[in-house]
Design a protein that fits this description.
The chain is mainly α. It has helices at about 10-20, 30-40, 40-65, 75-80, 85-115, 120-130, 140-165, 190-195, 200, 210-240, 250-260, 265-295, 310-330, 335-360, 365-380, 390-400.
Length: about 425
């Protein structure tokens, strides 16, 4: 069997994986919560965040096109600033997903618990376990599943938005943008911005494209445009409804006139579909990072083994870690909001590292201005975090003190572990 990652991705399949990584169940919740904070300025608030996210995505487009590596942002930091920076970036990303992905699974678990008997934590464990299954499929089975999940997500969410547009009270249209001052569009910025994270995880898939120089940028830009379309459609539709009492689940109000009492169940099952797709896509991206770290000697070489061009061992380790965090949460009760906050701040810092790497690696006025803008934005956002920065600081220290292993460029695995 092969000892390198298979190059099976096209622009379409890559966009599907990135869409799955970025879009989470927050798509079904945030439009209502943002409207609660920003009122009629909510659609503008989403537009502001989309504009702010554009340079961050462009950073990964430029770096991934030139340096297609499974290590993604960690590999970029390593090329720009050396092995120590690579380890720090890797530990920050792993520290983010260690809390972020279990949080996403718990969100899906809570949705399922509203539809089916059972506990949210049990459903979260099941969702994480099932997210491994596509990665065990032979050939390009995982990529096919990702494409199907992304297509289903887009179609189902688009259908719900369309129902909302058709059934919304016409009078709500005239109130958009009039009730609140323009400053209201900036109030929920941090809340929305988390919905635009994920491309830092997806950067690691660049190595698996058949033609990274052209297909990876297409996948990144295509997924970003799709994400903006979904968010924008949901935000606009939410602005046309009175969401009092259902701010946390606005889609229930969208589909209520058509689906009636089964609307909440339909929204809950849609959320589970999105969460499953989100987890599956994230396991793809994180497992590639683990594989890359093992290949370069940052992690034990055992994790660099592949089966049919796929890092199954790294995927197993990723899922096992997420399950352990979920179990630990049941014992120590970390809190969903706290877990999401810890993950979010790490993602912001990683965007800054990506920007700094771009500034160092790519000469030219355009890329360097883009990099400087990204770093400046991240510095401003991180300055609000205060004591929360202790967590990434500890991860950075752990990265520096972590042991090293011999680099392994080839680790054969003739059968799945």
């Amino acid at each position: 069997m092969g000892d390198e990652l298979g190059r099976t991705l096209t622009a379409t399949r890559g966009a599907a994986i990135l869409l799955n990584i970025v879009v989470g169940a927050g798509l079904l919740t945030l439009p209502g919560l943002v409207q609660k904070v920003a009122g009629s300025q909510a659609p503008l608030a989403w537009a502001v965040c989309a504009i702010a996210a554009t340079p961050l995505v462009l950073v990964f487009v430029l770096l991934g096109r030139r340096y297609p590596d499974a290590g993604g942002i960690a590999a970029y930091a390593g090329k720009a600033f050396g092995p120590a920076a690579q380890r720090v970036a890797a530990f920050l990303l792993l520290g983010a997903v260690a809390f972020g992905l279990p949080s996403i699974a718990l969100v899906g678990g809570h949705y399922l618990a509203q539809v089916l008997p059972g506990s949210a934590s049990l459903y979260a464990l099941a969702l994480v376990t099932l997210s491994l299954v596509p990665h065990l499929l032979p050939g390009d089975g995982a990529a096919r599943v990702m494409t199907a999940l992304a297509s289903a997500t887009v179609l189902v969410v688009a259908a719900m938005i369309a129902i909302g547009v058709v059934t919304a009270p016409p009078a709500r249209i005239t109130s958009v943008g009039l009730a609140y001052p323009i400053a209201g569009a900036f109030a929920p910025f941090m809340m929305i911005f988390f919905a635009f994270t994920g491309w830092e995880i997806g950067a690691g898939i660049a190595e698996e494209f058949r033609n990274p120089a052209t297909d990876f940028p297409k996948a990144m830009v295509g997924s970003f445009l799709l994400v903006c379309a979904l968010y924008g459609g949901a935000a606009f539709t939410a602005s046309r409804f009175d969401l009092e009492g259902v701010y946390e689940a606005p889609f229930i109000r969208f589909v209520g006139p058509v689906l009636g009492p089964i609307g909440p169940s339909a929204v809950g099952l849609t959320a589970c579909l999105i969460v499953f797709a989100n987890l599956t896509g994230a396991v793809w991206g994180v497992s590639r990072l683990v594989f890359s770290l093992a290949r370069s000697g940052q992690f034990p070489g055992w994790f660099a083994g592949t089966w049919n061009g796929r890092p199954v061992r790294a995927a197993l380790a990723t899922v096992a870690t997420l399950l352990c965090v979920l179990i630990a949460d049941q014992i120590w009760h970390f809190g969903l909001d706290r877990m999401l906050a810890l993950a979010g701040q790490n993602f912001f810092i990683l965007y800054g590292i990506a920007g700094a790497s771009l500034f160092r690696l790519m000469p030219g006025t355009g890329p360097r201005l883009l990099a400087a803008a990204v770093v400046g934005l991240v510095v401003v956002l991180c300055s609000w975090q205060g004591s929360n920065l202790v967590y990434p600081a500890l991860l950075g220290l752990a990265a520096i003190l972590a042991p090293r292993w011999p680099a392994k460029s080839t680790v054969h695995a003739s059968s799945p572990p």
